[in-house]
Protein 1
Amino acid sequence: MYRIRLMPNISNLGHKKAMDILVFDVKGPLAHFRRPDTTSTHASYPFMTRTALRGLLGAILGIGDWPTEAWTGMSLLSPVQLRVQQLSLLGKGFLKSGDVLNRPTTVELVINPHYRIYYNGPLMDELEDWLVAGRSFYPTYLGSAFALTFPQWVGRYQVQEWSAGGWTPRPLISVVPAHAVASLAMEDGASYARAGGMVYEALGGRRFRGIIHMIYESQLRPFRARIMPTAVPPVRFVLAPNEVGMIALW
């Protein structure tokens, strides 16, 4: 459970080691990351989930099972905008189960999403080659097949990792798992939000394991947080390229 606190005295976290991260952007006119607990109405998470992000990486390289030791992070580059619209979704006439049903369905859409993705882990060189070339093995999309996106390469950077435990030495500029946050610093104009109930890991065969909740600043402002000494599942914190802030990798 995290708490809101007044602005504390900020102390530096312990230095650990250098590491490489790949950075690229994905954006589009719309996205839809369907919540599995909705049926007749298709509600959406406000941004890309952990499993959707790993599916995007797998589509770029053409692999189904992404390595479990991979680390990813995400910053929001545009404010979250949600709109509800009815779409006509076809029935199962192609299975010869009867006439095609033109079924109006209420779908929640994310409008003009723009995300910056950070990656560290296996297959970095292969992933970098595909991103630099602007290619992918399979089509890439933002949650649903009607929301195509084309990843845009930003760069490969060496960044500094910091040990968790205490107030971040610089403000966070990414979304961060809620279970890694002990408290948040209340600053003028801060607007914190929570995206809850995201599936943590896809096991294949429509089987999933674990739930993760995310915290973000809805106005895209950097924010301060006091980090738990340990977090399960683990979360790593690194200094962003150009040292503009801190990024959470999960």
Note: The first helix runs from residue 50 to 61.
Protein 2
Amino acid sequence: MRLDDEQESSNYEIQRGGGGLPGFGGGGGGGMIGMLLPLIGSKFGCTGVVIALAVLAFLNFSGGGLMTGGSPVAPPAEQGQPAPGAQGDLTQVQSFSLKVLGTTERVWGEVFREHGQQYQPTVLSFYAQSGRSGCGAAQSAMGPFYCPLDKKIYLDTDFFNELRQRFGAPGDFAQAYVIAHEVGHHIQNLEGTLGQVNQAQRSAGTAEANAMQVKVELQADCYAGVWGKRTGLMEAGDMEEGLKAAEAIGDDTLQRQAGQRPMPDSFTHGSNEQRMAWLRRGLQTGDPASCDTFAQGR
């Protein structure tokens, strides 16, 4: 992507020192199990937060994947101090991430203005290993995620190394796609989609709730594609990088890598074919209206 001339977003914070929350520290399975049990028992219905529970369980017990939600089982934690304008303290990866975030603000600002509305940007919160979010503990094992309660994206930038080395999805556009996907969840939150789906999941069975979550994630993929198309910054090979990343984090791909047989009823993010298809749709159309994954038959 041609990001050299792009401005870094000022909507960020850097959590210093990590630490997580009592009972959830260290990234180990025991703390995460304690966080999962009440969530599983309530069938995803946690104070309006839409989360991918099956993928979180898969991350901690089987070894890899993306999670795009948080867990509000603890009170909202104190956030790291915002550091607007402190560019001298930014790492190269953080600077890149903020340039990507800045382009999402430009693109979605234009989209919202086209519909007579004003876009409210999200905040990107950087942390290392473990941190805190308005939805509870933030840990690197979760992957990047969006918290609807505080409208922030949480990112341990070491995930980009994992994306390249572990998932075999290198390239700047692959990294940008991850951020744009989480911004897609912010758009869904502003639209009211996350709250509507969460409400529907409360009375749904596990398989049905998972299917709803898949539609949420695929729409965020499509929104990421819309962003990519409308930036005007894509270069040759960028689409391929994004599609390779989408393929690498499909539920079926991750389950096979864990030595499991893919079980569609357990999918919460979609198969690799679905993720690539919806990302491609957004990249080709640049139209958010084309991203209605909830339409019957899709």
Note: The mean pLDDT is 79.
Protein 3
Amino acid sequence: MLILMSALATAAPIQQWSVNTFEPEDDTFADNNDDWENGYDQDPWYVYEGVLYSLTDDGVNDDAQAVDNWVISGDDYQNVVVNATLFNEDDDAIGIVTNHDGKDSYYLLFHSSDNMPPPGDGTQDGRLFLWRVDGTDVTELGAESVRWPDGEVAFKLSVNDGSLRASLDGEVLVTAQDEEPLDAGRAGFYAYNSGADAGGGRVTYSGGYDISVAAHDDDSDGIIDDVDNCSDVENPGQEDDDGDGIGDVCDDDYQGTNSGDSGDPDSFVGETLAINGGCGGCGGGSGGGLMFLGALALFARRKR
């Protein structure tokens, strides 16, 4: 058990996609890039010199929810690690999302020192928030007071079987457990009322670049957990002889029975285990089993 736990702890996620710099350079990035989807048309994202900037200081409608202001890409993953580098000259919300279903369901990790999306009430001291967004149902999974440091900040959010870990610049600040984990979805950036023209001739910039998405592979067999038919035990071949979607090495029914129709001589192991396991009088040791095997050998010798 300790060996298994150690292996799981050191298992490295497998990278699925990454973008270091963005293109093309235009004012409506998502509209002109089929790989990305923008959730709020009035708050577009734009690219300049390879960096993706948010443009969300337009005054959000009162009925807007946290479902707005994101830009997402990639395939759908459930057990995932998202890394991104962000900067924020503004004091409002900016962060990353994952497990995004393309509508209104996702995990949101963001930092804000002022305005924040509904239903948040705002903050003045600087905090990192981890939310679970499912339509208008928004749950705060955790938060931590932390001021935005000068310059760029590395965001990281790991989601693994409902266990969430949020980091800034390599330091884990928020951990949480979601008893009803969200389904697989895409990942990307998030901003709320952050960036662009702040009025009075003052311009504040916020955005990000260098985003990467990796999928968890807890048993280190090269098959990501989302599609691994036995995610806790290494089985790179994904063998599943009875076709029930459970890998043979994890399938108790497959290992513990012998239907007699496989044609595999090794399948007798199932019957041997059943005999040994049913030995009611052998509890203290293997002597009863040895006597039984000895009697079988003597019987076979006499028959000859």
Note: The CA atoms of residues 242 and 253 lie 10 Å apart.
